[in-house]
């Protein structure tokens, strides 16, 4: 089978399409004939080399954390009724950019009619992160929420979910007027630039932060009393080591910093939320935003666009 591998870290041009053996399903696994692969921010971070030392990624790594396709085989202990069904499935920190992949059978979620593979891999991982991140933030009707990093697939889902929850003001970072208009079309009441400037609310009950990085302390400082910042990603890198000083300096404002990984959410609950979101999207409710669908052999071009900050939504690769 054809697969994308990282031959050299540090550059979008460090990927290549090679031939690899077809996977076989191990116990509790399914093998999926891939229809679509969602490229995410984690893939870009891995290719950039920033995570290779900490997490042991090596040359030959296959990127891609989620796929949609048809189950071709089920391993021992798996649900045999999945064979022949279209599913969304996670591949963890990699393995998805291939014509055929193995994935945990218990996390394969059947897809409803009317939802494309591209739509599924744009929503499956990001939608759950947004849903559980907003829950961790204690989002309530009338709250003001800043979604930081809103032009990505997590942020786009979070904007829509926050509005549905009755948030009074959703202030969203964006890097261009066009992106701002698109985010308003998704329900954002105000749009701020990357530095947090622009017209609109300047204090927030909650911040859902996909970016982190050196600017994180400034967003902690913009929380209202009893406000909470929930970090769900590190697309801009790690925050300063002393970022917690902002919390202590604002001690009398009772601020909270939290992190959220869907790895800590029970599988059954993740599956339930994903199935509901897929059904919602298939009905035309929750909108999935696909920046572009590209062939697998154009993976280098896809990573270049991600590195240049050109992507609004998600790039999808198709074998």
TrEMBL record:
Keywords associated with the record: NADP, Oxidoreductase
Keyword Oxidoreductase: yes
SMART domains cross-referenced by the UniProt entry: PKS_ER (SM00829)
Domain Enoyl reductase (ER) stretches: 10-317
Domain of life: Bacteria
Pfam families xrefs: ADH_N (PF08240), ADH_zinc_N_2 (PF13602)
Name this polypeptide is given: Zinc-binding dehydrogenase
Organism field: Nocardiopsis suaedae
Lineage, top ranks: Bacteria, Bacillati, Actinomycetota, Actinomycetes, Streptosporangiales
């Amino acid at each position: 089978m054809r697969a994308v591998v990282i031959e050299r870290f540090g550059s979008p041009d460090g990927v290549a399409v090679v031939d690899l053996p077809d996977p076989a399903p191990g116990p509790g696994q399914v093998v999926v004939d891939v229809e679509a692969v969602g490229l995410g921010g984690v893939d870009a971070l891995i290719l950039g080399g920033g995570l290779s030392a900490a997490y042991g990624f090596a040359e030959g790594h296959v990127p891609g954390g989620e796929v949609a396709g048809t189950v071709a085989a089920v391993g021992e202990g798996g649900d045999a009724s999945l064979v022949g069904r279209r599913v969304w499935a996670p591949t963890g920190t990699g393995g998805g950019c291939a014509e055929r992949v193995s994935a945990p059978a218990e996390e394969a979620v059947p897809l409803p009619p009317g939802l494309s593979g591209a739509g599924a891999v744009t929503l499956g991982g990001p939608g759950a992160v947004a849903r559980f991140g907003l829950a961790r933030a204690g989002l309530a009707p009338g709250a003001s929420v800043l979604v930081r990093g809103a032009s990505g697939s997590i942020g786009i889902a979070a904007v829509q979910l926050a509005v549905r929850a009755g948030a009074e003001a959703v202030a969203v970072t964006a890097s261009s007027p066009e992106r701002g208009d698109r985010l308003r079309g998704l329900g954002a009441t105000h749009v701020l630039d990357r530095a947090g400037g622009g017209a609109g609310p300047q204090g927030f009950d909650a911040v859902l932060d996909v970016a982190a990085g050196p600017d994180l302390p400034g967003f902690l400082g913009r929380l209202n009393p009893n406000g909470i910042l929930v970090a769900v990603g590190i697309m801009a890198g790690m925050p300063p080591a002393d970022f917690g000083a902002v919390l202590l300096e604002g001690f009398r404002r009772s601020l909270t910093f939290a992190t959220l990984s869907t790895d800590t959410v029970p599988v059954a609950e993740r599956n339930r939320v994903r199935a509901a979101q897929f059904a919602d999207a298939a009905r035309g409710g929750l909108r999935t935003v696909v920046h572009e669908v590209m062939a697998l052999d154009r993976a280098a071009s896809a990573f270049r666009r991600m590195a240049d900050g050109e992507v609004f939504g998600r790039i999808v690769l198709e074998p």
